[in-house]
Amino acid sequence: MTGPFSLARFSPLRKSAHWPDRSFRWMALLAVAAIIGLIGLVGWQLYSGSRLAVEKFGFSFLTSTKWDPVSDEFGALPFIFGTLVSSLIALIIAVPLGIATALFLTEMAPQKMRQPAIMVIEMLAAVPSVIFGLWGIFVLIPWLRDHLFQWLRDTLGFLPFFQGPIYGVSMLAGGIIVAIMILPIVTAISREILRSVPKLQREAAYALGATHWEVIRIAVLGYAQRGLFGAAVLGLGRALGETMAVTMVIGNRPEIKASLFAPGYTLASVIANEFTEATSDVYLNSLFELGLVLFALTILVNAAAQLMLRRLAGSGPGKVAG
Fold this sequence. Notes:
The protein contains 13 helices and two strands. Strand 1 (67-68) and strand 2 form a beta hairpin. It is mostly helical. It has a two-stranded antiparallel ribbon. Residues 80-305 form the ABC transmembrane type-1 domain. Keywords: Cell membrane, Membrane, Phosphate transport, Transmembrane, Transmembrane helix, Transport. It comes from Horticoccus luteus.
């Protein structure tokens, strides 16, 4: 509005009327700056704590497979391998199962069944990690060792992933326990994303003569694919950092083996297991550097996921979801 009665002419009044907006804007900006500063502070602390190991081992720390506290020789490769493989196994199991569960709850389940099922899934997310670990040791591991692993070796033993002796504690057991732990997160987020698909999408597909399955596949999943990918990324974020339950079932052996029946080790597990046993500065700094590697790995994975989300937003049916 311009002219002799424009509000711009009464600038003191306009400023006093907008101070709540300005205050909120500054508070929001301060919150964002605090989060960024906290991330930077964590990264700096990890780097400063690992400086001795960085100077001694350099880049070879990431490529060495040797982890020998007696001779002060340390390498992170077995732990990076264990973290990535166990997380990948967890995603392969949890993402299809979580999306299928969310689809059932939003598209097919009877109304009376939905709320109890949702409550059970949400309760599963609240179970502490150590409880999953105990259950894994006394229930899951014996069953896997006596039944599933035997069946996998008998059926798919021609593949290197399912060869070798079966101990029970293994990389595959670690991946399965992480899959169980991230399943509620993937399911809950996927369900919210599928619920946000407009009814108009479904009605338009039905109007064109689509079957129920075609409506789900084209109108629902096609529309929500970007959000579902985001749900998988959030699940991966938890899988990478999961510690206690994995430590109790993965075997904790710093080796790189093709067989999923062999024990493994993850970045988070070795830090939790050996932090109190670090008797030398190099040992302690090496554990700090493992934490720095895990920190960087998480940021890289999330950055790659963001790039993939942008590519999905620019092509295919998921574009409309953005």
